[in-house]
Amino acid sequence: MRRSPLTPLLAAALTGCSLLGQDTPCTEADADSQVSVVWRPADFGGRDAAMIRLCVDGTCEERTSGSPDGPFASLSVQLPDSIGASTVPVRLTVTSAKSGDPVVEDSTRARLTEQHPNGTSCPPTTWTATFRAHPGKGLTSPEGMKLQG
Q1: Residue 93, strand partner residues
Q2: Domain ranges, ordered by start, for the chain
Q3: Region of residue 13 (left: phi > 0; alpha: psi -120 to 50; beta: else)
């Protein structure tokens, strides 16, 4: 059986591989450097029963807690991509929408983790941290958080 010398080249071309390791195809997913907080809206009562405020390094964002029928809600504060592997102060305040009284107040420092949503050799490089807003414990790890009731 005779083999063609072009078979390896054809296989490389069809699979999108480069012989020299260059021109690696990249997806084009966009992502931002940010600190995020996630929560179960039912943890904070009825529809929009609480106001969630997240402050990171002096910049704040806020929103209502959402519908208790939803599995989870989130809020993020964007950071400059140039922030790099740093640690930033994070403050969470949850207040009752009805009375304005604080329900949860907590603060910590977030160590940002490097992320490459399109692969390590493809842009962008972002820096992120994620917390859970827990009604009794404040800012906790989102690990193990049930996204359904």
Answers
A1: 53, 105
A2: 27-140
A3: alpha
